[in-house]
User: What shape does this take?
Amino acid sequence: MDAESLLLSLELASGSGQGLSPDRRASLLTSLLLVKRDYRYSRVLFWGRILGLVTDYYIAQGLIEDQLAPRKTLYSLNCMEWSLLPPATEEMVEQTSVVKGRFMGDPSHEYEHVDLQKVNDGDKVFEEEIVVRIKEETRLVSIIDQIDKAVAVIPRGALFKTPFGPVHVNRTFEGLSMSEAKKLSSYFHFREPVELKNKTLLEKADLDPSLDFMDSLENDIPKGNSLLLRGHWICPQAKAVGHAPTIFLCKWNQGPGWEMVVWCESLRVGLPQGPIQVSAHSKQSVNVYRQKEGLSSMCFWRQEVSQCLF
Amino acid sequence: MGDPQQDPELSYQQSARQRSSQDQGRSREQSLSQATVPQETQQLPLDAQVLSGITETPESQAPLQGWAQGAGLSQYDNSAVSQGGVQYLSMSAGFPADFQRQTYVDEGRVQATHNADFMLQQLQRGQGNLLQQLESSFQDPRPNYLGQFNAYQREDSQFGQGTQHGPYTRDDPALQFSSSELSFMPFDMEVSEPEPRELAVQNAKAYLQQTSVSCDLSLYEHLVNVLTKILNQRPQDPLSILESLNRTAQMEWFHPKLDTLRDDPEMQPTYEMAEKQKALFVRGGSGEGEQEVEEEPLETAVPNVMESAFYFEQAGVGLSSDESFRIFLALKQLVDQQPIHTCRFWGKILGLSRSYLVAEVEFREGEEDVEEEEVVEELTEGDVLDMHGEEEGEEDEEKVSDFLPKRTWKPPPVIPKEESRLGANKYLYFVCNEPGRPWTKLPHVTPSQIVQARKIKKFFTGHLDAPVISYPPFPGNEANYLRAQIARISAATHISPLGFYQFGEEEGDEEEEGGAGRDSFEENPDFEGIAVLELVDSMANWVHHTQHILPQGRCTWVNPLQKKEEEEELGEEEEKADEGMEEVEQEIGPPLLTPLSEDAEIMHMSPWTSRLSCSLCPQYSVAIVRSNLWPGAYTYATGKKFENIYIGWGHKYSPENFNPPLPAPIQQEYPSGPEIMEMSDPTVEEEQALKAAQEQALVAAEEEEEDEEEDEDEDQDD
Assistant: This one.
């Protein structure tokens, strides 16, 4: 929410039970103003709060004139002193995906993760335990990035793209009409478009280049209210063996940590028979468990899933 | 356009026309008299009408408006018609402005088609006049003069006609021609060859009427729209707002308001909601209510929602104050409708399409909730299956040869649900989606529902009758699931400062058999309150005041193998089957009023987080406890006050992401052994070898027999 209209936005969002105490609100109004001045942002957004066991993180983001340009993220523990976070990298996201559980509220806290690595020592192959230390600050960066990419959403028309490229706030935007507000297609992911490039020319024909320059929510997976889906899906494991199993998506629930159960029927003998369970851990990775081998897991990215699904 | 604007417009346009006709040259004054005379005669009565307040659209304005709507050739001609013979004036007089305008346009169109030939010939004249009209009116600096100045304007225009002559000749190519030609044109009905002037006009018009590929609107039409708009609305300073006029005119063209007679019906659900909530704000019983209040402020069961909302706001949770107030009114409504002894705002459970507001109530003594006695539909799956089996059995009697095997599986015994006012069913819960909507009572929870609810994770939809599709299957619909989650959340997160509640005297010992300890408590009158800092520092200063729910799904343990008398009368088979089961171990949970410090850790993580509401001024802040196990559950305490609230999705926190249990392993159909294994067919060689071997064996046997016989013979011989 925009720092300038923070109070109004908080009021509108209060139905979820999440709010800010009066002292937090007051200090945010003061300190975000200073942040805007000191960092020379054109716009400061109050991003939200990440609950920690000991203390909570308050997150703000600074935007420059181009609204889609990479954003600077700041965090604060007391709503007064803000520290800049480094930009998220692929590596960070991968590294921190192993960390589970609650945030502590201490950016210097280190999570320990024991990783098993196979080491070739001459002819012998043995597994070595490697302790990976992950700083909570790194995890914070990657979580914010993931949340931004997955659920940062703006209504259609709130931003417009100028002919020269930069994206600006549309001052004439007056909100969506009732019928439009109910449609998923009138909301966009507030990030660099990813799936727009994959659209066919026919699909792009109706788009207004100055408004429809981001990914619409319409095509997100899983679909809003579909409970049952079927599709063919080539998982890397099967590819290695040399044929495609048919996979029936039997169930999924939507929301954080969406999950689905998948039964796999191999077409030929040779693949281990029996149910294979696929559960989508977070929105990022998908783990495939084969029941026969216990929990031998395999990880691949959601990108592949969405491409393979239909 | 507004009526008041018509006055200056009328007068002005008339004067403008007059002027324009005069501009065309004095030389043709006489020849033009045919056209101008009707106007002159018409002016005076029209002015009089307008001045006397009758809303009447002047004849000169009507064609302009018709033009704005279509901007086509027909209107164009139309104006020419109106210019030449003023036959419409008489028809349109006396109509209200709106109607008149429309009829006029229609008639104009009709007329245009009828008189097409005539029009074509008159086009030039009309166009010339009209262009002049438009330009003269646009450049005239006196659009705002009021109607009173009519006379003055007329004089003025006549007076200053010489000076106004300039622009036309300079800008308009059409007017580069001499005025004598112009004056000649209208009366030259039989023009056969295209005049150069006509050609020039047509070329210019054609150029302006070009439309681009991306847009249907031509510059010509657009200019017409803009000018019409300016002329209709008479803005103060048209030049300065030309830019925006330009844009709005274009926008309006693309978003036509289709029907101006009726407003679009707006059936917004928000209006409906506001209408429903209006009832909350009306005081019941009008006059009576006031008197009551004056007499004695009755003690009411309605909780002070606003107060706790204030404290929760200090903690940074809770709903906005106006929503809290609406909830407060809704609870008041609930208390008025039901025989309620105590009432509490339990919290809010968010759903996908709607949310639930939950009220926790206790009925007055004796007002036992008349349960809809869902007549023991505890025809469990097993029974159903058994019945099914019997039916099949009957069918099979006809063909006895292949009967189905009887199933040996018995459903586990059903654990009876707890009585109301006991255990998980201690309170009744009412839910509604929005303050103002009717409250619905949730059914009591059964142990099996709690057990199954622990295994699944579903989002609420906001519709109580929605089915809960899950694996393993959940017995009931969303209302049951909601009730089960409420029971689980209450049991886990309802806490109070140590000492606020105490056990009632003596009763406890009798009921101790259940193993769950005493299950009733009362408020401690001597409770002094615990300092806020102590509450924050030590979780030992907080206790659970809701009973723990055992793995069985009940708060007090019941031996599922103990049978009620009725059940014992049932067939012996069941008993036999039960004997086979091993003794069930009694489940024991922590007793009531256990300190939070003894709660189990989840993944090396404390299940509770306690805070001061404001670190800057600890003296005046309140103690906040947040549950880490049920995100969304909060408690505040200050002095003798405390309150629990839950606002969330109704999901328990799990460090690992939720994985539904795998389907049960596939059952073996029959024991696999050598007798059902398929053998590979023997080859010819093998068969022959076997044959040979058999023959050999036969021969050998014969020989042996012979030998034996011989032996016997020998024996006999012996």
Summary: The longest strand of chain A covers residues 110-121. The radius of gyration of chain A is 23 Å. Residues 224-310 of chain A have pLDDT under 50 and may be disordered. The interface with chain B takes residues 11, 14-24, 51, 53-54, 78, 100-102, 178, 227, 251, 253-255, 257, 259, 261, 263, 274-275, 277, 279, 281-282, 291 of chain A (CB under 8 Å).
